[in-house]
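Q: Predict the assembly, please.
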Amino acid sequence: MSTQLVQIRCASLRSKSSYGAFGEFHDELLDLAGATTTYWCLKTMGKAGPDDHYVHSSVCQEGRSCWESCEF
Amino acid sequence: MTPETFLLEEQQAAAAQEKPQEPKRTENFVFGIPQNGLQQKQREVPVDEPPPLPANSELTYIGKPTQRYDGPAKALGKAKYTADVQLPGMLYARMVDAKIPHGRIVAIDTTEAEKLPGIRAVHVIEHVYGIAELRDPKQEPPSRYPTIRYVGQPIAGVAAVSQQIADDAAKLVKVQYDAIPFVVDRSAARADDAPMVFPGPADAAGSAGGGGGPTDVPQKGNVHGPKRRLIGNMDKGFADADVVVESEYFTQVQTHSALETHGFVVDWKPDEVTIYASTQGTASVRDEFADVFKLPKSKVRVITEYMGGGFGAKFGAGNEGVVAANLSRKANAPVKLMLDRRQEHIVSNRPDSHQKLKMGAKSDGTLTAIQLTSYGTAGVGTGAGTAGPATNLYKCPNLLTEEYDVFINAGPGAAFRAPGHPQGCFAFEQAIDELAVKLKMDPLALREKIDESPARKAERQLILERTNWRNRKPDGSDTGPIKRGMGIAQSVWYRFIDMDSSCEVRVSRDGSVELMSAVQDLGGGTKTILAQVVAEEFGIPPAMVVIRIGDTRFPIGPNSGGSVTAGSITPAVRNAAYQVKQKLFTAVAPSLGTTADNLVVQNGRVVFRNDPSKTYSLKQVAAKLPTNEISARATRVPEYSKARLTYGGVDYVELAVDTETGRVHVEKVFGAHDCGRPINPTGVISQINGGMLQGISYALFEQRIMDRNAGYMLNANLENYKILGAREVPEIEVVLVENYIAQSSTDAAGIGESAGIITLAAAIGNAFYNATGVRMRRIPMTPAGVLTALGKVQEEVQA
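A: Predicted assembly structure:
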């Protein structure tokens, strides 16, 4: 059975925990980091996305005009 | 691809179950805390793992106080930080940043700057639209330039043949603004009629509130949240309580103030881009430069030989890195761009907080309910949550936390040494003391009742044995204008492991041993512990191991954030050292007239197991190598068990409060801390010393002050942004509690977060109450704030 990846957030969303391979700690890391995570947009290198709205995992999702898929 | 980006569909769990299990063997590991009695723990481990290590007391180099590997280089000024890098033909750059807190850029004129003799390149940051549609074109019409949302926001960069010329040129860049109303006060920003930092309606599905994103974290006005967690039933929790405490606490914005400012030297060449970075993650910088400039990672090299502090704020390329790269490409020369001190104060910070806590407990201290609501501002960013301590220090059947971010027109927050925890602990651990007062319990005894951590139990015992706690006076009973008191607070942090942790260990025929990894040393002593781990395996002094790290040409290393470094990279290092040692024994055994399994390292010598009289030095053994060198590479293997672990500490403070001047003087700090198996106690204690000093500085001095009328940081310098100095350093004593966890081949763990920065403000607050009988609900505890709390001056209007 193959693993299926489902992209939910923008390919340009970044945070400190974007880098690294946290494996089995992944979900726990996101949960514990929770409301203390600071994000930035790789397109703008800032806290606002190309559409001038703020960057956050809850809003950098499919449906936002500047959302981008990952290229495999 | 980033961890936030994807969810795995359910098939993966099934796929994981179908995955063939790698061969394993069973081993017995030392387990537990010496003070509580060491035990044995059986684990299944991969067959090629090294044998378990005994307790530190039985080892030669691991666990022994060891001088800093790079101490002489630093003391002699030979250590080259990014700010020290000098390359042939290198240019110097300066960022141009915004002078207004909110507005649109109408025009940027670089003509005068470009005319300045010595200027080589100018780069202006432009708005990247791509497929994006502006959220509110009426308020923020399309522009060639990004909207300005805070004073200090990067606008452009200039590069010149000297720093002075670059600084002069930056001043000649003329920026014409169209100002927009702004808000820099958190309380004011929550008002319905406050200027919007990010105006416009939501466009994502499931929008909620007055203009925000999906319903999981709603937005209304400048308020984003809450991030909500509910466990159990709050009504029942408070109904079950015999006592309830309710309180409010306030913490300030603290800037990172690393000694070495954010910065890069970028040398853009057609065949490879070389980046010298002041970073906590060489891998993060390489990945981000590759992504931004559409380069293969193989053509991006990042070097961080020495690093002057980051505290969480130095990941990725940053605006300054991207600007430096563009300048280097335009000028066809290496470019150094380090932020100046003012910019360093603005680029990142620890968010402030306003926390409301309500807690219930039975008469014996058992917690029945914890409710936390917090508002904080990370400026134009998010991440002001505070619920970590309330959620994870003590078990409570009924818990409700609601964390809100409030946007203001100020520099962005960033991860900062135990994000959210110093703020949360300041409130929560004082509220625990409030509960103790109401229950008429000793604060230490209350924690003994409600805390399940075996490590902190041992640490509390150390507090009892090694401090003056037993002689603690009743709260507020000290007489005279100088009142003394003592207090404690506890911390919690979490074990995370980054599997991107690899290294290579090489042995040459002359007996020299080298370690190579891209992992960086932020100044915490990573080089030293890596040398110790290799040294232990070969039986040679750590100083004889050559450590080459901080270069992405070496195997990938973990990014250093969240205290992951020691726990992630040291097992890979030990495994590589062990493997190359086995290879060495296999290669030389025939020359020694024996077999590899008959060779063992004992007391710094290679010894025949069946004839201990036959011993050789590593140099003698390596000389038998049939090839010039031999090496092994290893990558971190998964944890030995699925156990989820935390670390922590208990910190004790003695202080004096001058009730006439309002000055608080911390006289003594004693800390008992755990972080798995300490590899270098000297380094761990040094980190804790630093964390304690940073914690005292946070509690008493540091504070970003914003001009509400002009919208800029008034004290963006180290003259007016007060940081603890030598005269304010108390007597400090630290005791480490070894905590063997049987999770990896080293059992090491990081100490960066739970090193005193989490607890000190709360411990000082509790000691202040013990001294005066007055609860400090706001930091920093400045003389004005103290006199206000003591009722000696009228309360100021504060956020």
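The first strand of chain A starts at residue 5 and ends at 7. The helical segments of chain A are 26-33.
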